[in-house]
Amino acid sequence: MPNCERVIDASVRWRFAGGWDMAEDKEYRLSSRSILQVALAMTSPPAKRQRTEIAITRSEIWYQDGSVVLQAQDTQFRVHWSLLSQNSSFFRDMQSLPQPPEEPTVDGCHLIELPDDAIDVKWVLKALYTPSFLAQTALPFAAVAAHIRLGRKYDFRELLDLAVSRLIYEHPTTLEEYDALVNPYQSTRIIPHRGIELDIVTLARKNDILCVLPCAYYRVLRQATSADSLFKYVKTDDGTQVSLALVDLRRCVSGREKILDVQSKSGYPSGWHRHYVPGPNCTGLERCVETREKYLCAYLDTLTSWRGLKKVKLTNTRFCAVCQQDIVESNAAGRRRMWDELPGMFNIAPSWGELKNEL
Ligand SMILES: [Zn+2]
Questions:
Q1: Which of 30, 33, 60, 272 could potentially form a cystine with 330 if both were Cys, beta carbons 3.0 to 4.6 Å apart?
Q2: pLDDT value of residue 39
């Protein structure tokens, strides 16, 4: 669709449908030029607007010397043009537009209605007005998600970049960074909650933060007790239910099958079980053969169990030092190979290098 048509289409939807086109289950990012045109399209005479009377609440973010009022759902925020313009090209462009005299005002301030969740707007304003908020080690997921959603839509560039960097920190693109996270893993830059793995997958996919997805999908699979469990809803801490969208389910089911299929093949993390005969440098042949047999039997008992990128642990083992070293090296090489193949296993891209975020 030509850009201008897309803009007009978006503005119409904004006005009458109260939101962006979600047909593809994606959250759009408009170009600066598009944003300006959408803003222009919004400044039609109020007589033509079909307004619904709703009870309006004033947010706690209400500055008496504020110069503009934002309204999202039934909540209004009185804030400063200068701060919005300083942080967002959307509002910078919008401020430069001439305001028609008939436009609605609140306490003498221009009123801008946003088709967003009031909570998202609150999280953005909180970050803009309270710099120490962003300096916290961990932020609530809701804040990170709001900064990404509205950061892309209105070009709050710094908020967006900081939120994406938190997401990438928790879901890195290299095995070294993945291994450097706390073990057992717990989110440290985003406050964890029940079902956060599913929320992160949805957020990253809807906002085209593709580099996060392989690790995010892998985390979902690690948590899953079976393929069937991927289809279930998870009750979050606030009582709401989350689940994977169909596109994510397909990728997770496909990735799970592929990982289970290769995890114990030669060249993959658990492939060392196949080296039943110790290498030529083994210093305890009889004992190492016997130990390998025990490991192999235990392995066969749980052949279809999830192992994935699991690091081998040879505690209290009877293997000789040479065999131990062989096994650790085989496991490390296999983990590297599996990590490299994750984007393809989840049918996102052939390799990590081809995962391009659209921010
Ligand atoms: Zn040995």
A1: 272
A2: 53
Q: Could you give the CA distance from residue 199 to residue 151 in angstroms, rounded to a whole number?
A: 18
Question: Distance of CA 292 to CAs 66, 295, 323, 324, Å?
Answer: 73, 5, 10, 11
In angstroms, what is the span from residue 279 Cα to ligand 1's centroid?
7
CA of 298 to the centre of ligand 1 (A): 19
Overall number of domains in the chain:
3
Q: Is the pTM of this model over 0.70?
A: yes
Going by pLDDT thresholds of 50, 70 and 90, the confidence category of residue 33 is very low
CA of 285 to the centre of ligand 1 (A): 6
Position 198 in a domain: yes
Q: Are residues 46 and 142 in the same domain?
A: yes
Dihedral (CA of 179, 184, 190, 195) sign: positive
Mean per-residue pLDDT over the chain, rounded: 86
Quote the ligand 1 centre to 315 CA distance (angstroms). Answer: 15
What average pLDDT does this structure show over 6-14? 33
pLDDT of residue 221: 96
Same domain, 63 and 194: no
Task: Calculate how far, in angstroms, residue 183's C-alpha sits from the geometric centre of ligand 1.
Answer: 29
